[in-house]
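To illustrate the input format used throughout this study, we show a single complete record. The first block contains the structure-token representation of the backbone; no residue identities are included at this stage. The design step must infer an amino acid for every position from geometry alone.
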């Protein structure tokens, strides 16, 4: 069974975070992240550095050996770190060290020039004064807000991560602005360089402080090597008394492994409980596929019951065989026609795995388009939806996305083509006639059309079909 904290689920949580263009303090909400050497550590160790370019706010995770990982594993590992970092709210303690180091290094002319250049950005107020900026950072940057845009300095990594985000987004989040990780520009790289140098400077100071504290607290007569043996060997973690870095957990090879019961927890307990109530309303915690969830679990979730009552939907109860299971088209259609098909409501009725199920997402997209087509009386789609809609308190679907409008336009084009060839029907169309229509379309070189669109067009034809009211 998939862990409730699989990468797909974390992606869904991440996509639902607010992502304003500017932070509440007026700073541009753009982040740069990069994989850097973990200074003064094992030569193979890396850190992931996340920098808010507008004000040099820095979050660092590691160390671990990232660059030696295969690309897919590297992508998933970095994404998990980024998802959990923003879901937690970026910690502020590290920035006391970074900003202090920036202040100390600002006496050097070349470094000062870099700071002044990187602090200039389009939009937002910014805070050139280091002290006031630091105060605002430490008070505010731990809010749970996703970036509006982000970049990295590795073009291959940027492309691979963008592709992976597209996979997670599905149809629900296909237009999300964070699906595209752009290649860093000079301004991004300059901010990353400044904060990385400041991090190294802070690291040295942290190691010195830790060593001094150990020696000060150790009796010179009884001191032995064992006093240092309990200290983690990596200087990045030795400096943890003054620096805060987030541990990066290596992503499993197979994120869908059924035995992944020991996977990483949600970002923290507070986030876990809040997200569980909103996105993971599974009374048993085993998170089955959407159909099983709807047929055997939704009726035990208070929020799902309240939602079903409001749209006059009867939830199936208890264990059912596969042949007796109610299709998830039933709740999908009812949510769509009442304009209640939000992320929260879909998860309440169909479970958290609905958003990472390609089949369910395809069914959802198809049902939305078929609803928008408003098939006429006498068509197969009208007859199909008639019984699903019985008992619905009202019919008021929400607006279509640009992609859905384009799909509807294609279906109407096919429908007009069919009507032009066959005239007013009022009779049932057989498969041979449909195949001839498809061949004629191809012979006229009108372009390739997916079979699903042909099915929708034929489904909207008035074939004079009568409703079987005995059903």
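Output of the design step:
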């Amino acid at each position: 069974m998939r862990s409730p904290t699989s990468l797909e689920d974390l992606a869904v949580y991440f996509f639902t975070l607010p992502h304003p263009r500017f932070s509440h303090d007026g700073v541009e909400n753009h982040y740069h992240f990069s994989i850097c050497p973990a200074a003064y550590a094992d030569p193979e160790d890396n850190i992931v550095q996340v920098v808010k370019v507008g004000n040099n706010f820095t979050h660092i995770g590691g160390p671990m050996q990232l660059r030696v990982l295969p690309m897919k594993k590297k992508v998933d590992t970095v994404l998990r770190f980024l998802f959990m970092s923003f879901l937690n709210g970026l910690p502020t303690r590290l920035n006391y060290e970074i900003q202090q180091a920036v202040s100390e290094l600002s006496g050097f002319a070349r470094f000062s020039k870099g700071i002044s250049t990187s602090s200039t950005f389009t939009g937002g107020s910014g805070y050139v004064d280091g002290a006031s900026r630091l105060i605002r950072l430490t008070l505010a940057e731990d809010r749970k807000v996703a970036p509006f845009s982000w970049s990295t300095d590795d073009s291959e990594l940027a492309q691979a991560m963008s592709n992976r985000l597209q996979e997670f987004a599905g149809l629900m989040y296909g237009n999300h602005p964070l699906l595209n990780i752009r290649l860093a520009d000079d301004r991004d790289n300059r901010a990353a360089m400044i904060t990385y140098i400041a991090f190294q400077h802070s690291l040295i100071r942290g190691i010195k402080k830790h060593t001094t504290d150990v020696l000060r607290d150790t009796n010179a007569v009884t001191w032995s090597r064992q006093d240092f043996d309990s200290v983690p060997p990596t200087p990045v973690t030795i400096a943890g008394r003054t620096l805060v870095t987030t541990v990066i957990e290596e992503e499993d090879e197979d994120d869908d492994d059924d035995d992944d019961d020991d996977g990483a927890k949600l970002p923290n307990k507070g986030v876990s409980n809040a997200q569980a109530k909103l996105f993971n309303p599974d009374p048993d915690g085993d998170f089955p596929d959407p159909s099983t969830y709807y047929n055997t679990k939704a009726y035990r979730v208070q929020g799902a019951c309240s939602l079903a009552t409001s749209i006059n939907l009867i939830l199936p109860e208890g264990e059912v065989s596969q042949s007796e299971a109610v299709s998830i088209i039933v709740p999908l259609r009812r949510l769509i026609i009442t304009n209640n098909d939000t992320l929260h409501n879909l998860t309440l009725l169909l479970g958290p795995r609905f958003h990472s199920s390609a089949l369910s997402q395809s069914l959802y997209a198809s049902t939305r388009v078929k609803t928008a087509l408003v098939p006429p009386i006498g068509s197969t789609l009208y007859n199909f939806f008639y019984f699903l809609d019985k008992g619905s308190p009202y019919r008021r679907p929400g607006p279509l996305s640009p992609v859905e409008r384009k799909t509807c336009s294609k279906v109407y084009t096919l429908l007009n083509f069919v009507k032009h060839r066959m005239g007013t029907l009022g009779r049932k169309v057989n498969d041979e006639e449909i195949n001839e229509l498809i061949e004629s379309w191809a012979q006229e070189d009108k372009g390739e059309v997916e079979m699903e669109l042909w099915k929708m067009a034929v489904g909207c034809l008035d074939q004079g079909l009568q409703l079987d009211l005995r059903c």
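Structural context for interpreting the output: The chain has two domains: 7-241, 270-459. Confidence is low (pLDDT under 50) at residues 107-142, 210-244, 254-282.
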